[in-house]
């Protein structure tokens, strides 16, 4: 398997770099996603709660690339998980995107009431072919253990905040053992990781940018990454991380940066 894709446990290939669109305003999204697709991105990560699925769908529809060659992930929001409305939520996402299938649908959060029932609904949608792969996001080991005890279908992926400052080693190891792929969100620590002196040092001595160093650290470990940028120069910079090879010494140095930094919400306390 080349570095450009990861293979999910149901055989589906997912491009290893995707464009994240959290906080990309709807009026910017069509242009931002269109330019990214022209540049070579083949994977876009959105969510119902981001409010820009419609614009992502338009950019995909009007691109010169066939729909089947662009991988789109979206997510069921917490309220829909909690109220038993996952089927309806997926139908709404399909409608906003203007697609007849979604490449990957995730439960956005391990909502204590409703996550198991929501997974059952995703399983039905998967068996009907409306979603081509199903997974979870922000699930810790105990949430995964519980899910696996109830599920007929193993999640294909777990999307988590992961960068050298927050490595989530217990969840990653658990997922590796049972063949759940890992997608690293906020892989630049929402840009907070770019100024760290060690990251800058490794970038300088390899003629890379700090962003490429952080993305390559995750890619080297076989994970999918979904950096967000609306800026075309930065989007290209991030996409080029696919061709970066860090040596073992640099990877070990980055491994030493764990300090528990979360840049968004933190699912570690969710029952
Ligand atoms: P991120 O990708 O770690 O960082 C994005 C920030 O870095 C933006 O401010 C961006 O600014 C800047 N940036 C990007 N590339 C850069 C570069 N090459 N050089 C300098 N600055 C750069 O953070 P994120 O948006 O939180 O995470 C990425 C994606 O993960 C989201 O968009 C979303 O799709 C997903 N996500 C999922 C969850 C979940 O719960 N499942 C939670 C959070 C995020 P500009 O746009 O100005 O370039």
In CATH, what is the class? Answer: Alpha Beta
Distance between the termini: 37 Å
Mean pLDDT: 97
What structural category characterises the helix and strand content? alpha/beta
The CATH homologous superfamily is named: NADP-dependent oxidoreductase domain
The main pleated sheet reads as: 8 strands, parallel
The CATH topology comes to: TIM Barrel
Radius of gyration: 18 Å
Shape: globular
Counting DSSP H or I runs of 4 or more residues, the number of helices is: 11
Elements, N to C (H/E): EEEHEHEHHEHEHEHEHHEHH
Which stretches are low in confidence, meaning pLDDT under 50 for 5 or more residues running? none
Lateral arrangement of strands in the main beta sheet: 3-4-5-6-7-8-9-10
**Count of discrete structural domains:** 1
Q: What hetero molecules are in the model?
A: NADP nicotinamide-adenine-dinucleotide phosphate
| Strand elements, count | 10
Fraction of residues in helix = 40-55%
């Amino acid at each position: 398997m080349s570095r450009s894709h990861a293979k999910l446990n149901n055989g589906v290939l997912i491009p290893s770099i995707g464009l994240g669109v959290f906080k990309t305003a709807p009026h910017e999204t069509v242009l931002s996603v269109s330019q990214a697709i022209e540049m070579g991105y083949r994977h876009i990560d959105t969510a119902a709660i981001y409010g820009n699925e419609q614009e992502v769908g338009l950019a995909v529809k009007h691109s010169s690339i066939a729909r089947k060659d662009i991988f789109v992930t979206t997510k069921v929001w917490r309220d829909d998980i909690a109220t038993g409305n996952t089927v309806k939520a997926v139908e709404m996402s399909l409608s906003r995107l203007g697609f007849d299938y979604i490449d990957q649908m995730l439960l956005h959060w391990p909502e204590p009431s409703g996550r198991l029932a929501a997974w059952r609904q995703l399983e039905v949608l998967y068996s009907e072919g409306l979603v081509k792969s199903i997974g979870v996001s922000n699930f810790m080991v105990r949430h995964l253990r519980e899910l696996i005890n109830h599920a007929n279908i193993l999640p294909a992926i777990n999307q988590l905040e992961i960068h050298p400052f927050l490595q989530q080693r217990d969840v990653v190891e658990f997922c590796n053992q049972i063949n759940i792929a890992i997608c690293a969100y906020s892989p630049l620590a929402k840009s907070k990781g770019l100024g760290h002196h060690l990251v800058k040092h490794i970038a300088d001595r390899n003629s890379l940018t700090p962003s490429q160093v952080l993305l390559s650290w995750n890619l080297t470990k076989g994970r999918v990454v979904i950096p967000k940028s609306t800026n075309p120069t930065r989007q290209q910079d991030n996409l080029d991380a696919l061709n970066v090879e860090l040596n073992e010494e640099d990877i070990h140095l980055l491994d030493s940066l764990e300090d528990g930094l979360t840049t968004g919400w933190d699912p570690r306390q969710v029952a």
